[in-house]
Amino acid sequence: MDASAGIPDLLARLGARLGPAGLVTDAADLAPYAIDWRRMFHGRPAAVARPGSTADVAAVVDLCRAAGVPIVPQGGHTGLAGAATPDASGRQIVLSLARMNAVRAVDPVGLTIEAEAGCILRQAKDAAEAAGRFLPVTLAAEGSAMIGGIVATNAGGLNVLRYGMTRGLVLGLEVVLPDGTVLDGLRALRKDNAGYDWKQLFIGAEGTLGIVTAAILRLVARPRHTATALLAVADPAAALRILHGAHDALGETIQAFELISRTSMDLVAEHAGLHSPLAGAAWSVLIEAGSSLLGLREAFESVLGAALESGDAVDGVLAESGQQAAGLWALREGVSEAEGRTGRSVKHDVSVPISAIPAFLDETARALAAGAPAARGNVFGHMGDGNIHYNVLVGPDDTTEAINAIVHGVVERFGGSISAEHGIGQYRVAELQRHRRPAELDLARRIKHAIDPQGLMNPGKVLPP
Question: FAD-binding PCMH-type domain location, by residue (predicted)?
């Protein structure tokens, strides 16, 4: 079916259903919805539907299905893989969840929060904190990222080491299927073994199987005490030994364990004006622990002391206040923005087995030196959960394809993944085809066809059309 032929009639029907606040058609007003956060992908939607309820979402999906018009779900527009950006055909409807932004309920005893898809993460975290609880999804974009997008991309963040990915926090989902059916699975249950756990299909599917309209997420008790430190280490192998010792001494209280290269620290100093107190460190480790029990500080200091005594850490700074801790975190959180000001780079959000990280970094550096000598790595990330952002500052003759082939080739040799937390979107579709086993891709296509036989849900994302 030529979707463009029925666009005017579809827009009239959508306008009648959603009203003036629910449909955007003016070209100037469409512009913010047509480009991704990194400004890599530019599209041209036919319109933006802004439903205000789950029933409205179902109606929009049903109208688009009848017209054969594809839908691109969009949340806070903070994704890094282009999953929420339409193509340039002018034949796709962007479905924005921004108007569905309520926190429906917080249960401080049952440790759950129910929120609509358009609820901004910071809003949900504030609601949890007002009830004396903590929503353990911590992202740099928490002031913009929305719950629906966080679920749809299975977002990671800074506290995955302790609390796991978003997938492990989702207890219940409400989803609109490609035929307009509403699946209501909003059950606040920790244990539910009644058949298939269908919600897992939609977590991380990036809107290709249906539209998440609400979620029940698991909360935790907020740690009353935290300890944060920055350590200078000679190499990633030393950092790994410190992580091993921290697991022994601190156990589940470790909230974050970040590895930061000297290149990353230099970029933050040059482009953000933030300077590490451990100037000149070859590598840095940012470690944080949290607990509601007394004695955390003493245990944390023992880890730092052991690291310094063994020589695995050559220097260190222990935050003496929340403000100092925030200053240390600013160094880590400023790396991506500082990199963006340096010129062209190729970003890699990869994971390998934690114990293999030092060998992976060594082999990737050698492969880059041999295959792209003008390039240099900007390496940082969540060492504690195996997720390394091996970004590459490229030379004038380096191509994205060549750099990807080098880095992802090493990732595959180590049994890793080409996307640890940012997803596939449209940015990594070709790479996924190269690095996933054929049987896995075939199963994904069969699932997609079974749930979305017309291929109208976010086409061109994750899997080829």
Answer: 41-222
Cβ of 465: how many Cβ atoms within 10 Å? 9
Q: Which residues contact 397 (CB under 8 A, 6 or more apart)?
A: 374
450/358 Cα distance (integer angstroms): 42
CATH number at residue 7: 3.30.43.10
CATH number of the structural domain spanning residue 137: 3.30.465.10
Domain boundary among 46, 74, 99: 99
pLDDT of amino acid 343:
83
d(CA 156, CA 421): 5
Compute the distance between CA of residue 129 and CA of residue 108 in angstroms, rounded to an integer. Answer: 10
- Please compute the mean of the pLDDT values over residues 182-210 and round it to a whole number: 97
Question: Residue 439: pLDDT band by 50, 70, 90 thresholds?
Answer: very high
Residue 252 domain flag: yes
407 shares a domain with 384: yes
Cα 3 to chain centroid distance, Å, stands at: 32
C-alpha distances in angstroms, 331 versus 79, 239, 273, 347? 22, 18, 10, 19
Instruction: Name the residue among 350, 411, 393 with its Cα closest to residue 156.
Output: 350
Kindly report, residue by residue over 270-319, the tens digit of the pLDDT: 999 999 999 999 999 999 999 999 999 999 999 999 999 999 999 999 99
> Token pair of 409, please?
């080739």
Q: Is residue 393 part of a domain?
A: yes
* Mean pLDDT calculated for residue range 159-167: 96
Q: Are residues 257 and 327 in the same domain?
A: yes
- Name the residue range of residue 411's domain: 343-423
Specify whether 211 is located in the same domain as 234.
no
Q: Provide, rounded to the nearest whole percent, the portion of the chain with pLDDT above 90.
A: 94
Residue 321 belongs to some domain of the structure: yes
Alpha carbons 444 and 139: distance in angstroms, whole number = 28
Q: Which amino acid appears at position 386 of this protein?
A: G
Residues 83 and 155 in one domain: no
Residue 352 CA to residue 19 CA, distance in Å, equals 49
Q: Quick one: tokens of 285? A: 């480790």
Do 113 and 206 lie in a common domain?
yes
pLDDT of the residue at 4: 53
Are residues 310 and 238 part of one domain?
A: yes
pLDDT score at 1: 41
- Per-residue pLDDT, averaged over 342-360, amounts to 95
Domains contained in the chain, number: 4
Determine the pLDDT at residue 465: 67
